[in-house]
Fold this protein.
Amino acid sequence: MNKILALGAEGCIVERVRTRSAQVRFLSGNITVAKTWHSDHDSLFIVKEGRTLSTSVESEDDFKRVKSLVDMCRLIPPNNSFKGLYDKKNRVKNPVDMFCEPTDLVNMAEEAMAGVADSGAPNCAGVVYYQHVNRELVSSSGPQGVEDYGGFEVSARAFFNDDETGHAYTGHAQREGVNAKKVGVIAGENALLARSPGPGKPGIYDVVLAPLFTANILNRIAHFSSAFNIQIGMSPFCDMMGKRVASENISVKDAGIVEGSIGSHAFDQEGCLTAKTPLIENGVMTGTLHNSSTAKAQEGVTTGNAGLVVPMPWNTLMEPGNHDMENLCQELGNGLLLTNTWYTRFQSTREGVFSTMPRDAIIVIKNGEMAGSLKGMRLMGQFNELLKNVEAVGKEAEQVRSWGQSHPSFAPAMLVRNVRLTGLNTDFDVQK
């Protein structure tokens, strides 16, 4: 930092991240891959004459180019959206004991495979992943911080064939918080429920979304609540502060530190302490995620969510309701239980027009009971309308960071009315 300032920069932030990772992959009773790796890099944010430059360096040779980086600032147009560095002199130390024995991941993989076998599903595949991140930050305006974060993740898929699959996931900062065998059992049970699926019929359905599915929705809520995304019109929450964006059953907040989370952060990329920020309270939008620049532009205060350019979420928490999964299916009556999804894509982020592809078990519910399965369906709609149609929320929130999700969410199941699904014609007719 001092070298950068001596070269003529007016301000800078240096962030050093050291990551230690390990992974074990398994397939149908066998460990197929076991590996460890590490990566170290330093992120630089340089301020000079109203111009900003952000880059990463990974070796001592890269540091030799620092002078050229500072000089390069003269060639960059002024950054009119930059309002200065966060300047409170925080000193943060948040060390976390995240010790991992080399055999821990192999044991968890074997436990997950045993769980699938106990469920009766014949095949499985999955991964056990461990990550320990040590992060140090120093800012020329005063803040400094050191922290550790990460943890263990287990993801398992059980299957009979390509159309008869079930998936389950768990994550926790500590080994004792991971029940890998339960992950295998749930994946296997879902695969059993997915047996002999029929093709889905297009129509309007009532659905229950399992936590894996809900987490995908919560991930989008969090990013759409970034003040930067709202400012540039890349959010269906534009001009919605103080207005209803969801049903009264939905309350969502962002939190920097959550017990057991694999994504807890004590400070953001400016060195500001993280906090709890309500985003939606009883369906009404009440907050946005800010860094110092977006906050000053809107005459507010930072929420401790920098991203130096785009404020970002840490952990997305949805307030649980009072229904277990059986209650939700009974309340559903006739409809579908969607256990998982992927490929969530927005045709218009401003209008919230999107689609997502349910995967793994799509379970038919008739008169509150499971009565078969479907395949080949896509959910389509408008994001805010989907949120407004949430009628009930499950009482157990699960930590999820699955495919395509940038950070963990703590997600319960949800009962949603009047959801549009596309698919092929079928004899299963439980649409409205």
